[in-house]
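New to this. Comment on this protein:
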Amino acid sequence: MSGALAHDARPGTGTGTTAAPEPGSARNPVPVDYAVLGAGCAGLATAIALAERRSAGSVVLLDARTAYTDDHTWSFWHVEPTPFDDCITARWSSWAVRAGGRTVTTTAAATPYVSIRASDYYREALHRLAGLADVRLRLGTAVTGVDAGPDGSTVRTPSGDVPARRVVDARGPVDTRPEDGGGAFAQRFLGVRVRAHRPVFDPGVVTLMDFDVDQSRGIHFVYVLPASRTEALVEDTYLTEAAVPRAVLEAGITTYLRERHGLGPDELDRMGGEHGVIPMRLAGRDVPPDIVGVRGGAVRPSTGYAFLRIQRAAAGLAAGHRTPPRGPMRTWVLDTVFLRFLQDRPDAVPGVFLRMFDRVPGDALVRFLTERSTARDDLRMVLALPTVPFLLAAVRVVVRALLATARDRRAGRLADRSAPG
């Protein structure tokens, strides 16, 4: 992994962050207009969007990390411009899914699949913050609590309180390592950047999901982003509720490189990587706009993609939208059913993905995956899926919703009966 990006939040250092002088005194600080909790992908995007809309006022970002490292890769279909397009380092017009010894390759040249490395994203964000006078970035500052009041909130930190007229929570998930947080359905992955000593990768095609790997622990696939004939990011990924030891993920990558590409450990160099968890759970459609990023439902539960949602939410919050942008209700319903299917029928998942990518045209598939689909696109998606398993998943979703509603009503009646008077 590459070294940390330099940081110093003191005024006048000019090291890639902006440090507006703290208003007020230490005992009676004047509230900032916005306190953004978390300065990762979502927090930085939100702070920049707010500050560049100069009517937003002063912004302070608080994050427990002390430096930025090259710890993520954000990939997505480039269906719309983003504020960080200059950070895109790789593009592919074709992508593949493999299962049962068969490979389906899809092409959509007008909407390429692209990648942004964390090091480039953070460097660009810090550079842009350096030109914004009303923003202060405070790294090494953990948030211990938030007290809401009638005129704003007080953010508690070990180094003192930060009063703010409005607080935006952009912190990531609580569990960030695949071996932690068992019990929550999530993508648990380890990625390694490798340089092979001979050409083995196809730089023109992304392997989105190769399911022809051991499935004994649940839904398991390998994801390959080739940068050249000899370099690639290779990720071993599980969709499961169970914790996955790092040793299992490491072994998965070693086995895959040997069996798929004929590479032994002595035939490649490791150049860094990433390790983490992407929660796959439904967020309500009424998530407050002051919660962004993973906690605000930025991760689309049926796919695990989040980058475009993060950028849309940041722009929407800065524009004063009352709710984060979301796809149409029918997409939310399809996601709900598909997520239920993933958990109920893990054995059928590889074949379903292969069938979906095989039967749905590339352009329509991209629109669906990026929440830009039409009703016709969604119908194509539904018709491409096996009817019986998804009907069963839909029935389970409806039954669980009805049971939850009944429980809520029962709890409400009990509360009314126990209320004094």
In short: Residues 186 and 209 are 16 Å apart (CA to CA). The longest strand covers residues 268-279. The radius of gyration is 23 Å.
